[in-house]
What we know:
Blueprint lengths: L33 H14 L6 E5 L5 H7 L4 E6 L2 H10 L5 E5 L12 E7 L8 H11 E12 L1 H4 L16 H9 L4 E7 L18 E5 L5 E5 L6 E7 L19 H92 L2
Parallel strand pairs: 1-2, 1-4, 2-3, 4-5
Antiparallel strand pairs: 5-9, 6-9, 7-8
Helix pairs in contact: 1-2
Amino acid sequence: xxxxxxxxxxxxxxxxxxxxxxxxxxxxxxxxxxxxxxxxxxxxxxxxxxxxxxxxxxxxxxxxxxxxxxxxxxxxxxxxxxxxxxxxxxxxxxxxxxxxxxxxxxxxxxxxxxxxxxxxxxxxxxxxxxxxxxxxxxxxxxxxxxxxxxxxxxxxxxxxxxxxxxxxxxxxxxxxxxxxxxxxxxxxxxxxxxxxxxxxxxxxxxxxxxxxxxxxxxxxxxxxxxxxxxxxxxxxxxxxxxxxxxxxxxxxxxxxxxxxxxxxxxxxxxxxxxxxxxxxxxxxxxxxxxxxxxxxxxxxxxxxxxxxxxxxxxxxxxxxxxxxxxxxxxxxxxxxxxxxxxxxxxxxxxxx
Length: 352
């Protein structure tokens, strides 16, 4: 398949300005690294099917993928089970040809035969009723429309004895996934996805579609095989019309892998400096704590001395108040005596 030139060249990477917190249930713009690479690569792959088409993104989540497709599609509807997430997506990605609605993947809020492409990545494993979901997708697709869908390969993603993903209700193996799609679509083309670190050799002209893969399988061993071994995810393109699949694709996050070791060494040095600074700060804190304890002890002694002095002053004041009360009593008695007996004494001595 030769790609339309409108799909080549530079274009924006869509990302939410108000990302949701990553809980493990859905990818958000708060995440980076492997999980972001996996999800963006799927949407970039789907982009070539959406040029000038009416598209539905089921389980659109935070909305970055729907916005990525809206760059080339005629229209995009993002359908999300969480109403709050759908409303936030509308705030993060206002586009004239894009809208987000609240809806269930097993009962799509769309008319029959109303869209050209349905995209749904890492959705089907999150619920029961998977048959109902694929049947709904078939219902809303136009006769020559296509369904681009991904899911973890249970045998590689969660082999027996490994931890399970608590958000997954039913994971599918490759045969189960292909059988489910084959019940509803005449043509199913599967691709396999696996994040990796390595090197790419790409032919300048046409080459066999299935690559020759070399993988290091230990400190002193390589493995050579045809096709991508131990891939974690299956991406399928399903349609009742013949499928023209785009070329195999590579997602390159960056090419400077050697800087990882330098970054790790630099980080370790900064960490050691930080530890030493922390040790010095802790020692200073201990000295200051001891000084404060000593100061607190002195303050407590001074407070006790002041309290004793205050208590002595209070006792002295109480004594003076008692003496003043006694003198007031004597003065009152003297005044009473003078008022009662002085006239009598005056009459006795002076005859008046």
